[in-house]
Each structure stands twice: as structure tokens, then as C-alpha cells.
Amino acid sequence: MNPESRSILDYLKSSPTNNFFLLAGPCVIEGEEMALDIADKIVRITETLGIPYVFKGSYRKANRSRLDSFTGIGDEKALKILAKIRNEFGIPVVTDIHSASEAAMAAEYVDMLQIPAFLCRQTDLLIAAAKTGKFVNIKKGQFLSPESMKFAGQKGRDA
Fold first, then answer.
1. CA angle, 60 as apex, 36 and 100 as ends, to 5°?
2. Alpha carbons 32 and 57: distance in angstroms, whole number
3. How far apart are CA 50 and CA 21, in angstroms?
4. pTM of the full predicted structure?
5. Most buried in the list 25, 28, 69, 74, measured by CB within 10 Å?
């Protein structure tokens, strides 16, 4: 994908079925070599199958059960790896954000922002993500009915 020549929406609609794309990658960016290797393997598979691919990797994990759990290699370092993947493979990239203050910073490096399921109703976070102008993927919280998710989406559209 060349961001200058096509929008991310056009790219995602480029599937022969016009409605399926793969959003996948490591839970969190642990290092450049690992991330590039994953991207390379999945890009080759999705190109063979004709499936548009979005590389997903969190630059930081905020939702860990233990205080001493691994959360990342550093914000800017991980975000630069995501940008490198986009540039080297010509694919869009997405990362999670966990607070409104992260939205603008992460948006400088990625094509799409993802709101984790456990934060899907956080108004300030949804508004900050929407105001970046990036696509926003809001994961549905298990505690919400499908009908209730329309309100999370509406917050983004209204912003």
C-alpha cells in the first residue's frame, strides 16, 4: 500500500470479497527483528491469498495482570518499528492506545488506532483517537451487548 496513492479504506476494500481483511501481529512489539519477521511471513501468505493485511502490534501493553509483567521496549522505539514495517512492506499498521494523551503521539507513526475492549466506553479516549483523523478500531468489550457498541462508535463519529 502506498499511503499517498490510495486511502487505507480503498486498500482494505481491495479484497476479492470486498469485505475481508486480516488484522494480525504480535501482542506487543518485543523487538525489531521479531516484528519484521512476523510481517514478512504474514505479508507473503496474504499476498498469495489476495487478502489485504494490516499489521497489528501494541507499542505498549497497559493491561497486564501483574506489575512485573513485560509491557514493552519503549514507546518511541516500538512506534518507529511499526512505521518501519509500514514503509518496508507497504502495508498499514495499527497499535493500541490506552489513554487520550497517547492518541496524537501514536498517530504520528501508524495508520489506525485501536481501542482495547476494556476501554471501549472511555469517552475521552474515543474522542482523542477520532480527532487524530486516523481510522479507529474499537474492540467490543465482553461486558457490552452488540447493540451497546453503537454508542462507542457514535462518540467517534461525533468527535
1. 125
2. 11
3. 9
4. 0.86
5. 25
Q: What is the largest CA-CA distance in the chain?
A: 45
pLDDT, tens only, 62-118:
766 777 776 778 889 999 999 999 999 999 999 999 999 999 999 999 999 999 988
Answer with the residue of higher pLDDT: 157 or 84. Answer: 84
Q: What secondary structure, in 3-state letters, does 5-54 show?
A: CCCHHHHHCCCCCCCCCEEECCCECCCHHHHHHHHHHHHHHHHHHCCCEE
Q: Please answer whether residues 57 and 80 qualify as being in contact, where contact means their C-beta atoms are separated by less than 8 angstroms.
A: no
Counting Cα atoms < 13 Å in the Cβ hemisphere of 134 gives: 26
